[in-house]
Design a protein that fits this description.
CATH architecture: 3-Layer(aba) Sandwich
Distance between the termini: 29 Å
Number of strands: 6
Order of helices and strands: HHEEHHEHEHHEHEH
Largest sheet: 6 strands, mixed
Shape: globular
CATH superfamily: SGNH hydrolase
Radius of gyration: 18 Å
CATH class: Alpha Beta
Length: 249
């Protein structure tokens, strides 16, 4: 089973880097202070993209990208940009609602954000997670367990929804992260990407955006880690093209 292999690789790497872990911790703390922290997107956490009398309903839930760090408003961040792409795809207006929090993992999303979901049924759900499960070194087993549980909760509450999941972070392109941290986190991110590809492949109407091979770096980052407004627009467009090409809704 692939999960067993990934978990063994994770544990072996952890054992190998243990002697230098204090140095890696200090490097991480220095990078965090140097980059700083962007504010969440301002303005309302809901809106409408496109035109039509009876809009489809989209819930965006997850970490800092869903919270809109790097953009002035949610219209210009992930939720608004993805809703625009979705509206163009389905030919209907899309009413979107954002529940995002910087720093959350899949487990914290279950504990902290799921209780904030409105008591209504959504047609589409966009899950933006993975970055913090990489940064906080969640194991492959934990990543799979927490995501499967979260997706199960979302499915139970929204039986007919199409669920989209953003890709695990493209760490290797981040200009803010130094080596060797960048190398180690990129290896873990690739592992989480392969992991979620596997466990979502048989799920009904759950579509994961694979880590892209033609990643557009120019203008993507706001702070070296989070997307800029242009980054959110490019990312949402790339995701929709991938979903259209690779999945039948």
């Amino acid at each position: 089973m692939n999960l067993t292999v990934w978990q063994a690789k994770y544990l072996m790497t952890a054992a190998l880097i243990l002697p230098v872990s204090p140095l890696l911790f200090l490097q991480g703390q220095y990078t965090r202070r140097k980059v700083g922290l962007l504010p969440d997107a301002a303005g309302g956490t809901s809106g409408i993209a496109g035109n039509g009398d009876v809009p489809a309903k989209l819930l965006a839930i997850g970490e800092s990208t869903v919270a809109g760090l790097g953009a002035r408003t949610h219209e210009l961040a992930l939720a608004g940009r993805f809703a625009e792409q979705l509206s163009g795809k389905i030919g209907r207006a899309v009413s979107w609602h954002v529940i995002g929090r910087n720093g959350v993992t899949a487990k914290r999303t279950i504990d902290e954000l799921v209780p904030m979901i409105p008591d209504e049924t959504f047609d589409y759900i966009l899950v933006g997670l993975g970055g913090n499960d990489v940064m906080k070194l969640s194991s492959p087993r934990k990543w799979r367990r927490d995501m499967i549980r979260l997706l199960g909760i979302l499915r139970e509450r929204n039986p007919d929804a199409v669920i989209f999941i953003t890709n695990c972070p493209m760490i290797k392109y981040s200009p803010a992260l130094p080596h060797p941290i960048k190398f180690l986190l990129w290896e873990l991110s690739k592992m989480h990407d392969a992991n979620i590809r596997e466990f979502t492949s048989e799920m009904d109407r759950v579509f994961y955006y694979h880590q892209p091979t033609g990643f557009r770096v120019d203008g993507f980052f706001a702070d070296g880690i989070h997307p800029s407004e242009q980054g959110y627009a490019d990312w949402s467009e790339a995701m929709m093209k991938f979903f259209e090409k690779n999945y039948r809704w």
